[in-house]
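Colleagues,

For the teaching module next term, I've prepared a clean inverse folding example: a structure given as tokens, and then the sequence designed for it. I'd like students to try predicting residues themselves before seeing the answer, so please don't circulate the second half yet.
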């Protein structure tokens, strides 16, 4: 979150709009992996986790494999207001949008659920989350 906007990632080659996410590497906590993955995918650094939103188990079929994974979500803020995206992953186009735009543009409903949860979280709602 930055200036009360949400960061989403457009994936033009797939026609998708997604939240940043990734895999936990050996020796990393879920929180460390989240900050690293958002930085890698979007190119933004200066991120700070302000709330742990929880986790969910997601099941889906990919090619001929049935996938089951646990996804952990965090509410983050961009603390460095001078930060600009630089050399994120080529497959993504980072876009800052309003909460409503994020809800209407995300490809998958389960990601919209997490955006709603972040919007309703007390850390955001009480105004304690702001860029400084």
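(Answer key — instructors only)
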């Amino acid at each position: 979150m930055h200036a009360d906007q949400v960061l989403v990632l457009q994936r033009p080659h797939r026609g998708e709009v997604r939240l940043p996410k990734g895999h936990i590497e050996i020796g990393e906590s879920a929180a460390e992996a989240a900050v690293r993955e958002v930085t890698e995918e979007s190119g933004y650094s200066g991120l700070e986790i302000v709330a742990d939103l929880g986790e969910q188990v997601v099941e889906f079929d990919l090619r001929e494999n049935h996938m089951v994974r646990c996804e952990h979500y965090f509410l983050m803020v961009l603390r460095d207001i001078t930060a600009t995206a630089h050399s994120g992953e080529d497959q993504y186009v980072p876009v800052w949008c309003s909460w409503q735009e994020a809800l209407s543009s995300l490809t998958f409903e389960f990601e919209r659920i997490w955006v709603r949860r972040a919007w309703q979280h007390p850390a955001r709602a009480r105004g304690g989350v702001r860029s400084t």
